[in-house]
Here is the input.
Amino acid sequence: MYIPTGAISHDDSCQITLTIIRDNPGVGSSKNESMACYGIKCDPQPLSFNQPVKITIPHSSLVVNPEQVKPDIVCRVWDSIKTSRKQSSSSTDKPPYCRLYKRHLELYINHCAEWWVLIPLEQHVIRQQVMCTPYIPDRIERGQEFAVNLQLYNDLPGNEVVIQEDSRQQSCRRCHPSVPFSFETRSGDVTITCHREGVEVESQIVSLRDLQAKMSQCISLYVPHIEDDVNFAVITITITQAGKLGISRSIAFVIKYTDGPESQTPSEQANFIRTIEKVKNSDLQSDIDILTIAQTMDVNQFYDLGIALGFTIAELDRVEYRRFRDRQQAAYDMLVVWRGRQSSTPAAKNTLITFMESYNSSSNDTTFPGLSFAFVVNM
Here is the structure.
């Protein structure tokens, strides 16, 4: 927020706060009208400004010729049930005015209120991006049905924090880092499919209009129980949009059941800490470094780390089988293959350290900047 000199009278002494609005303004729109909606609440109301005040808001739309877009602006004052909607003015000197840029928009206002910026999708927006984050119950017992809650939300400040808190109150935890999905605004609906061990267990369709109109929504995918005596299951969620491009994105993670073996004993925890130190003290360039790291890994870490680095269970099984179930040699082979797939050795080292430190953390809400790999959840 930028408040120019003289915008507030000397007699007015107050603290101005901005809050992201996650609800739609509720203004009337035609049946076929689709809008990208961004809301901000400016307090204290009804404070007025002597000069226009600029608020910068990030957006997640891929817009053609953003400088030509003239959004609609909705205003609602706290003591009035009336909500006004009008097109942006043509000048910053005549608020409300909005200018759209590639990654953000600038909104100029002359008083505190609740403000929304509506961008017409059909005319200007090619793609709209949502973040996708799966959550699962804190406890999952073997032989019981459970739900994977896939959260879809606009990548706006504060949205993810609110979703994390709501999920925590429902005794759910995030089981994979958030990944972006960009859908076409002129294409078809989005299909979300859940697989367990490669077998489809549920599929749902999310309408394109809902994705465009709602700032966040939760899709619950139910995984039925099975009788197999296994300690973990591989879950894959695929998000696909019908259309010419056939946009698709998959999220894979491992579920460990609550009544299975404990994921880490104190001694295993100490071993994993030593593994992290080995990675930090090596450059990953020599095979000796890789072997030293592999020798500190235990049985669980081979699969946990392998899944996180992008391998499938089947691939890890084959690696282990070739080494006659020698997990340390299998871990060595896995790390050598993974290192060869990376663009540079320093980048590979940083990636490995980032994941292993996050995996070792007691927090399940650690983010992994720039990474989009599978994540293991220990129940």
